[in-house]
Amino acid sequence: MLYALLCYNDEAAVWAWDKAQDDEVMARLAVVRGKLEREGKLGPSLRLLPTTAATTLRKSDPPLVIDGPFAETKEQLLGFYIVDVADLDEAVAVAKELAEANPGGAYEIRPLALFNAGAPLRVEAV
Amino acid sequence: MSADIAWIDAAITAARPQAVGALLRYFRDLDTAEEAFQDACLRALKTWPANGPPRDPAAWLIMVGRNAALDGVRKRSRNTGLPSEEVLSDLSDQEARAADQVDAGDYRDDVLRLLFICCHPDLPATRQIALALRIVSGLTVKQIARAFLVSEAAMEQRITRAKREVAAGEVAFETPGAVERSERLAAVAAMLYLVFNEGYSAGDNPERAQLCGEAIRLTRLLLRLFQAEPEIMGLLALMLIQHSRTPARFDADGQVVLLDDQDRGLWDRKLVTEGLALIDKAMRHRRPGAYQVQAAIAALHARAATPADTDWAQIDALYAGLERLTPSPVVTLNRAVAVSKVRGAEAALEMIAPLEGRLSGYFHFHGLRGALNLELGRHAEARAAFDRAIALAGTAAQAAHIRRHLDRLMADHPAPAA
User: Fold this and answer.
1) CATH 3.30.70.1060 matches A2-111
2) Looking at chain A, which residue has its C-alpha nearest residue B232?
3) What spatial distance separates the first Cα and last Cα of chain B, rounded to whole Å?
4) What is the pLDDT of residues A71-121, one digit of tens each?
5) Contacts with B, A 9-68, CB within 8 Å
């Protein structure tokens, strides 16, 4: 069963981490990711730039392009993981591990209806 | 710091501008607002670890701070006891949400007002920065004093005096109109860029270098509140791209490494990416401004994999645009660097010749003139310009950089015996 683990937190706090703090959290998350990858349970995972970098296209007629995220919320969507696990219990267990590596905020655990891997992108490490 | 305390610290820091801004609107007095916020923070440190973090730390701090200050007022006037900790801190989520809804529309103007009072026109730039770092960022007087290399007592005095001037002036508490809001934004943007530049020119003073991160944090906050302002996007992009070069700007001995000589692999790609995304967004508005143009110039450097790949013709064109937007001899001087790459050192020297009167006391003018003359093989002129630059150097790093030029010049082309 495929699940998306959507990471939510207050981006004002997260993007105020200094480099050492950020590196530390990323290193802890990398350990969890590495383990999941070795177990063949981790698909794509990504981190989003802050919502200040976001642009939203409202599908009105004609479509309206506006600055900022779709929803103004206390916590923002900061990134996500796609995991392949047996059931919801296991998905929750993975989220708990990630939460231990990166406390604060919340993970929304959403089952996937469709997964297109797409073409392999040649991306520089961002 | 334990994970708990670190989290609380981060949440309080993030909430501070909004919370102090709202308390300032409420009490219309900076000292009262700051005290109320301090009170709320103390209570947060006591109750958050036990009860868990509130959903909206800013709303929590505003409510608790407001109640605490009001109780303080009551206590002073009637000498009744403070209510117990539990009563004050037992803010249900619902209450916080209600407070949030009431205030949401005012938040952005609260933060803008708080930043704007630091831009009081009577305050010199350094005092504006010190005040903003104290009341908006919440840095301690000690931290600010270290950043500016002055004693704590002197900085305390500077900030107290600045606060007094602000208090004596008129602070507009009513919701600003569109024109006033954009004037405030422009003043605040300029002040934030000053904070950034304090950090950027810090050399090897790590306390001061942290001001770059602080300026970026506050500018991100401002952009979150004013999402469709292309100049704020431009300002943030400019800061991010400049800051991305920090790991490459100094060598192991703390000497300045010029853009051309920097190891571009050390540039922070995450900051560059965010900066490029923002300048793209800003350009769509087709409302150019000085920060956007400067960010676009920085972006062209960031996009060049090697110095040789730099699109100097485009940079020349952007500087020409900047000269129109904000005419200044320093902008022309910067343009001359691009001109030297596109049309040669001779053309660049011609361009800066008329600036001599206004920039005769400016380190970079003589530094550039030295470098251009050196390129043309005019060693005597180069030496004279470098000598002048050294005499005007503002930091040891600047002086050392020119000294290396001179040493090389002397080694290759010794001065003729007098």
Assistant:
1) yes
2) A52
3) 64
4) 888 889 999 999 999 999 999 999 999 999 998 889 999 999 999 989 888
5) 10, 12-13, 15-19, 49-53, 55, 65-68
DSSP code for A2: E
Question: Looking at beta carbons, which residues of chain A come within 8 Å of B10?
Answer: 13, 16-17, 104
ipTM of the shown complex = 0.90
pTM: 0.88
**Residue among B213, B223, B274 minimizing CB distance to A18:** B213
Phi then psi for B217, rounded to 5 degrees?
-60, -45
Domain ranges of chain A: 2-111
Q: How far is B312 from chain A (nearest CA, A)?
A: 25
Q: Identify which of B226, B109, B129 has the alpha carbon closest to the alpha carbon of residue B172.
A: B109
Whether A52 and B213 lie within 8 Å, measured CB to CB: no
Closest C-alpha among A12, A17, A93, A70 to residue B18: A12
- CB within 8 Å: A52 and B236: yes
